Amino acid sequence: MTTSEEQPLRVRTPRRLPRPSELRPLLRLARPDPDPTRRRLARAHTVGDLREIARRRTPRAVFDYTDGAAEGELSLTRARAAFAALEFRPSVLRDVSHIDTSTTLLGGPSALPFAFAPTGFTRMMHHAGEPAVARVAGRIGVPHTLSTMGTTSPADLAAAAPHTRRWFQLYLWRDRAASEEVVRRAAEAGNEAIMLTVDTPVGGARLRDAHNGLTIPPALTARTLFDMARHPHWWANVLTTDPLEFAALTSWEGTVAELIDTMFDPALTLDDLTWLRSTWNGPLVVKGVQTAEDARRVVDAGADAVIVSNHGGRQLDRAPVPLETLPSVVAEVGGEAEVLLDTGIMSGADIVAAVALGASGCLVGRAYLYALMAGGERGVEHLATILTAEIRRTMALLGVSSVKDLTPDHVRLR
């Protein structure tokens, strides 16, 4: 037991009231921004933030169409988990005072190692639709891909974004003459490349859409009328702008699954790819490759590039994880064809990882749809700012100053 003489001496810190002149520099009271879109986007620092804003601002059926995947959504979950589990391996003491994010995609320049992916029914997410996305693509210097199921014609998109590198995604229909006409229209509109999607012989079981009763265009049921009261701006924009029309067909009234099963050809084979190669002189890309063996087959049949993709998890559940499949595809055909990656990309760091593992670049789809729903064209612009900052920061922290210097040594799959 210690005596009072042995107890430590307690010294109290002097207290005083702060002077007004000392408080003034600490106050950061900004005037409220009168622009609601700018206020919303100012709170978004990641793709996940944009997704949450989109969820609140759009009807449930529309958000779920974008956000959902097939059946138990395992393919999408596993694709994102693969990105989350990988490990970066930085190299220190490197000069990263200047970061060069530019690269080459399909023989042309891209300021960043990604392109905007094809998405169907884009004007359903926001009335500005594909033109808004394509204009942003042009401003930041990356390609944009219009889907066969897009809601803007190739000619109208060319007029809206004349300085953007434009690609066209193609589904081959049962009616080959109609498919040939679509390719002709895409060429006349100045599209540089055709991207044939091959993983959709039938529509996947997208259960969120089935539960929501989603139709194109949205039907005015008791449920949707109730939803109008919760999302009046979205409904006002849909009902007071041009009706939903598609890049490659005049009209449709029914579910997405019914449209796919009616229009698309389940008898598609390599012979059809050979036929398309004979009718198209530009770069020919095959999207939906999920094995190295299939990559070899399509490249031998004339493809200039392959996209390792399971359609965002929206077709076959429990499909191969694209990021894990990527190295084997690069090893098989990387010296003969470009290899790009799609599915599960939610950050610029994901893009850097894919490029390090051998991809020429990535396709970004859901992320820009979240941004479009969150803030229209300005939302997509905000997404581009987020992705650019994430790519640059990740490269700098890896000790890499140029996209071309990314290698498999910078990433370890776990």
TrEMBL record:
User: What InterPro entries does this protein's entry cite?
Assistant: Aldolase_TIM, Alpha-hydoxy_acid_DH_FMN, FMN-dep_DH, FMN_HAD, FMN_hydac_DH_AS
Supply the alphabetized keyword list: Flavoprotein, FMN, Oxidoreductase
Known PROSITE patterns for this protein? Answer: FMN_HYDROXY_ACID_DH_1 (PS00557), FMN_HYDROXY_ACID_DH_2 (PS51349)
Annotated SUPFAM superfamilies: FMN-linked oxidoreductases
Q: Using the UniProt annotation, give all residue ranges assigned to the region (Disordered).
A: 1-39
Name the needed cofactors.
Answer: FMN
A Pfam family recorded for this sequence = FMN_dh
Keyword match Oxidoreductase: yes
FMN hydroxy acid dehydrogenase domain: from which residue to which, for each copy?
A: 39-414
Q: Which PANTHER family match?
A: 2-HYDROXYACID OXIDASE 1 (PTHR10578:SF107), S -2-HYDROXY-ACID OXIDASE-RELATED (PTHR10578)
Q: Which family does it belong to?
A: Belongs to the FMN-dependent alpha-hydroxy acid dehydrogenase family.
Q: Any idea what this protein is called?
A: Alpha-hydroxy-acid oxidizing protein
